[in-house]
Amino acid sequence: MQLIRSFEERSAASFAEGRSPGTCTCVGQEASAVGVVAALREDDLILTNHRSAGHLLARGADPGRLMAEVMGRATGYCGGKSGTLHVSAKELGVILTSTIVGGELSLAPGVALSVSMKGGDEIVTCFFGDGAACEGIFHEALNLAAVWKLPVLFVCENNEWQAFVHRRETMLTDDIASRASAYGIEGRTVDGNDVEAVLAAATEAAAKVRATRMPFLLETKTYRLRGHFEPDDQGYVDKAELASWKARDPIAALRASLLESGALTAGGAAAIERRVAERLDAAFTFAADSPWPSLDELTTHVYA
Amino acid sequence: MIAAPSGEVTLLDAVRIALAEEMERDGRVVLMGEDIGVYGGAFKASAGLLERFGPKRVIDTPVVEEAIVGAAIGASLRGLRPVVEMQFFDFASRAFDMITNFAAKHRYRTGLGVPIVVRGPSGGGVQAGPFHSQSPEGYFARTPGLAVVVPSTAQDARGLLKAAIRDDDPVLFLEHKLLYRRAKGTLPEGDGIVPIGKAAVRREGRDLTIVTWGAMVPLALDGAAELAREGVEAEVIDLRTLLPMDEGTVLESVRKTSKALVLHEESRTLGVGAEAAALLAEKAFEWLDAPVVRVTAPDTPVPFAPALEAAYLPGPATLLAAARKLAAY
Ligand SMILES: Cc1ncc(C[n+]2csc(CCOP(=O)(O)OP(=O)(O)O)c2C)c(N)n1
Ligand SMILES: [Mg+2]
């Protein structure tokens, strides 16, 4: 979680220094990413959205190659051609990062269909936002996955914001998981800022999907602590709301509970931060020192 | 009526001014789109309009492109004049059915027009990657029933957007995001309406004609200035409306210059420039002294990496090389 947080903060700082383009960070949502991804098997597949750095890093993505893609370098996961918000990493089983809101929902049933047809017991996890849950494709994808009996763990990261519009302005209910019953599938809402709760809920949900080969809708309630995109002064955000969620910072909460239980010492916590800093120093140096893609790349991979 | 501000305004300001003026003039004009109200639009094209016209007329929507355009069409059939913002024009693909089937064909099927405007930022050059940089005009400019407009100046942005809102049929209005703050101009007194379907001659010249639009217009003008230093006088035509294309202005120019270069930012194959080239082959053949030349982006998606994007976009070097060769033909 600390790796994700620091990666995103450095990415924002690097933008502010003019060293990389703006990007959508997932600061505040680390517990949701880590809790869900930790519940998956290595051969399970993932589709995600524009707020994907947490999912990718939790999945074991190399922060250097990730930053290289954000910076448009040849060593990035997509060779610099796709860029920030658009990272796909086949080697990690991350099929798609869709920056078209809802694109991940469109493709998830097909990815799961391929698993079903091959007879494997992998499952497909599809991360999307509360904003995507408003798009028509949410309904189409969940219904299709249900009637086709597909092993998709739909994970709605409900972070209260849809770009610059508050979730409350876009729906009359607070929960998205409650919609599961409309499709004849199971759903559950969990505190997305409590990593242990997310892990427990995702483990149970993933096991159900794996065993029943039916979709499940898991909703992690969390909050986007930084803006929608860098730069974003969050002038439109209610200060009290932001403060109340800052007080529930998932990393601070985990650290406090681990320190209290004795599972972590102050020295141990400092060591984690140091290790993360060293790793990211190397990663950002790697990215910044990486070459730009060669001009031939402009016309490659348009077709096979 | 608010007086047009004196002094220079940006193309982005001009869009906002046109929206405000038309909302002031006509109570049927309503705005719908993602983040357009409280936030004032992702690019701030509607900043201040919620405060001024209230939430009944400046409507923040969820992320539901198909439903927004559908709602606009439905409302227009009952007399409203909705102006929809696509946060990036790339996302109009999510409303493709609504635009190309429902909006475009309704009058043909029923005799009733669909007076909506779908507007928003398009184009590349800002390192926004393959899904936020497209020039999708070509997808729409071959759909009978639509008008497709791309302004390149602040005056045109205001005058054409006002004309689009008053039009009784659906108009797609693509604002090049690179021009939002770079294109500046002084707005004329009064309405300043610029008619849809009329091209503008931005620069006169006798030696060759450059037919272009959008963010390629300033590139063409800079190129023409450079060519003039070499003794070549290029005429620059800003189509402004791609559908219907102003055949008369294009033909009149080529009749004079006998040489034509079509310049556009969208990819090459079946870009709107192909239609301009076909027009010239059909109706200007007798006057042409050289084959029509196209300078366009290649047939690839818009790449993210800055060096690749720079190579993707037509630039001064490619334009000048092609124009010199054409002039010498
Ligand atoms: C089809 C489409 N419409 C609009 C956008 C612009 N946009 C990008 S992210 C976003 C909000 C998405 O909200 P949500 O799904 O809740 O994800 P979050 O950003 O909160 O993680 C919008 C409107 C887009 N990228 N794609
Ligand atoms: Mg959200």
CATH superfamily grouping of the largest domain in chain B: Thiamin diphosphate (ThDP)-binding fold, Pyr/PP domains
**Mean pLDDT of chain A, nearest integer?**
97
Question: Termini distance of chain B?
Answer: 53 Å
Count helical runs of chain B: 12
Determine the fraction of residues in helical runs of chain B and give it as a percent range: 25-40%
What does the radius of gyration of chain B come to? 19 Å
Give the CA-based shape of chain B.
Answer: globular
- N-to-C series of helices and strands of chain B: EHEHEHEHEHEHEHEEEHEEHEHEHH
Sequence-ordered SSE layout with sheet pairings:
The complex is a heterodimer of chains A (304) and B (329).
Chain A: H1 2-16, H2 30-38, E1 45-49, H3 53-58, H4 63-70, E2 94-98, H5 103-118, E3 124-129, H6 136-147, E4 152-158, E5 161-162, E6 165-166, E7 186-191, H7 195-212, E8 216-221, H8 239-246, H9 250-261, H10 266-289
Parallel strand pairs in A: 1-2, 1-3, 3-4, 4-8, 7-8
Antiparallel strand pairs in A: 5-6
Chain B: E1 8-10, H1 11-25, E2 29-33, H2 49-53, E3 58-60, H3 65-76, E4 81-85, H4 96-110, E5 117-122, H5 137-140, E6 147-149, H6 154-166, E7 171-176, H7 179-182, E8 184-186, E9 200-203, E10 208-212, H8 216-229, E11 234-238, E12 241-243, H9 247-257, E13 260-267, H10 272-283, E14 293-297, H11 306-312, H12 316-328
Parallel strand pairs in B: 2-3, 2-4, 4-5, 5-7, 6-7, 10-11, 10-13, 13-14
Antiparallel strand pairs in B: 1-8, 6-12, 9-11
Helix pairs in contact in B: 1-6, 3-4, 8-12, 9-10
The complex binds thiamine diphosphate and magnesium ion.
